[in-house]
Amino acid sequence: LSWTEIKGQIVQLKAHDHSHPQSAEIYAKIDRLKSKAIENGFIFDSSWITRPLNENETNESVLCGHSELLVIALQLIQEPVPKRIQVVKNLRVCGHCHEFTKVIAKIEQCDIVVRDANRIHHFYPNGQCSCQDHF
Predict the structure, then answer these.
(1) Which residues are bridge partners to 2 per DSSP?
(2) What ranges do the domains of the chain cover?
(3) What angle do CA 83, 72, 11 make, to 5 degrees?
(4) DYW domain location, by residue (predicted)?
(5) Is 113:85 a contact under the CB 8 Å cutoff?
(6) Is the pTM of this model over 0.85?
(7) Which residues contact 17 (CB under 8 A, 6 or more apart)?
(8) Among 33, 65, 79, 132, which residue's CB has the most CB atoms within a 10 Å radius?
């Protein structure tokens, strides 16, 4: 699960969540971020997938359905030019989400702060993370 505050209300999303009223917009934003990331040389690392794929899934759809990415996409929809996005996550950030969030911060030129179960990650607009990739 990941949480964020939007307009004074706490929003909670789980992995591959489609329950939010803006679900279609969230996944469309994720698709746009994926395209921009690929244009910038990002490669999706399937080694972070820990289960067999279902018939209708791809590596990208599984990896980009993680809750922190959904929350980040929702924040970008709510505030298209944010200065800072803050996310709280109940588990550790996987390596894919860590790398993808670095790219998102660089593409969107904003700070993204993710507090996971082990540490606080501050992703900067230059594509770096405060943990120096020791997640």
Answers:
(1) 13, 89
(2) 2-129
(3) 105
(4) 41-134
(5) yes
(6) yes
(7) 23, 67, 70
(8) 33
